Each structure stands twice: as structure tokens, then as C-alpha cells.
Amino acid sequence: MASRFWPYVDQHREAFLALWMDEVRHAGISAQHTGVEDTAALVTQILEDTGFSVTKLPTRGYPILLAEAGGPEGTVPTVLIYGHYDVQPADPPDAWSSPPFEPTIRDGRLYGRGAGDNKGQHLAHILGIGALAGGMPRYKYVANRLLTLVQNLLLGHKLSEYHTGYRAWSRSLL
């Protein structure tokens, strides 16, 4: 996976940054009933462009976005990303070094309302899954399942998902 993942990220770095900045520009402030529907539409578009099918679930407040993507049976994990696409008011406005909904890069960091909580993390999760689209190779899945079965029988434990490859990956592991 590493052979696909990091080159994909490097190749799309500028596009990913543009998406992040676009999302920060969307002032979806639920406490003030401002722009949340527009922000939901943007996140829906990002999810769809990344390969997810999106269902908008109505609530008494703002919609929940349920996104699903699949691959060949048994080759992709179930992953839950929980996050919010709205932000808190940017009060007081004079406390900001730059306008809160105009993303600004200073010293290699992106500043803007929601850049860190939660738009940056949320977008990273979505785009990371998109970068790994297609699941693990079938041979690796079968080998990992067989190894798990043998260990379960020999050790008397249920290591069901330990060897499936469905655990978090760090760059050093890849």
C-alpha cells in the first residue's frame, strides 16, 4: 500500500490543500444558523468526488452525512469517521490575525476558522481513505485470515481482526 499511498498524496498535495482552504472558507456556523447547508453540500461533493456514495440523513438540526465506499467483498475494512463540518462563531473578530474565513498560510501552517477543528482532520480522513481505495490484494487477505485461524486454534484466542490488515497504519509501517 505504501507504494501507492504516499506518491498519490504527493501528486495531489496542491489539490488537497485547495480543498482544505475551500472548506475553511465555508462559514458553516450552526450556533448562528449560517452556512451549514452550504458546508454540508461541499462536504458531500468532496465525498462523492473521492468515490463515496452519500446519503443525507435529516435530523431536527442539520443533516448527518452517511458516506459509503466499497471494494471487492472481504478486502476492505469498515471504517467509521465521526466528525463535524460546522464551526463555532469566530468571536471576537479582532482577536484574529487574519480574517477567520479567509485561509492564510503563515510559516507553513494553514490558519482559518475550523482549519484545525475539525475540517483539517475530517478532510484528511476522507482523502486518506480515497488514497487507499481498492482494498488490499486478495492474496494478502486470504493469507492473513489463514494465519489468524491457525493462531486462534493453537493459542485458543480469538484474534479475529488482528491479522486482517484492518488496523491503523503509520508511515513507518508502510
Description:
With 174 residues, this protein is mainly alpha-helical. The chain contains 4 helices and 4 strands; from the N terminus they run H-H-E-E-E-E-H-H. The strands form 2 sheets. It has a two-stranded antiparallel ribbon. Strands 3-4 form a two-stranded antiparallel ribbon. A hairpin with a 6-residue loop joins strand 1 and strand 2. Helix 1 packs antiparallel against helix 3.
Features:
174 residues; mainly alpha; two-stranded antiparallel sheet; 4 strands; disordered C terminus
Short structural description:
The protein is mainly alpha-helical.
The CA-CA distance between the termini, in Å, is: 7 Å
What does the main sheet amount to? Answer: 2 strands, antiparallel
The strand order across the widest sheet is 1-2
Task: Describe the oligomeric state of these chains in a short phrase.
Answer: single chain
Low-confidence stretches: 161-174
| Total count of helical runs of at least 4 residues | 4
Structural class: mainly alpha
How many strands appear in the DSSP assignment?
4
The outline comes out as elongated
Average of per-residue pLDDT values: 80
Beta-strand content estimate: 5-15%
Order of helices and strands: HHEEEEHH
Q: Gyration radius, to the nearest Å?
A: 20 Å
Question: What's the helix and strand layout?
Answer:
Elements: H1 2-25, H2 36-49, E1 53-57, E2 64-68, E3 104-106, E4 109-111, H3 115-131, H4 138-155
Antiparallel strand pairs: 1-2, 3-4
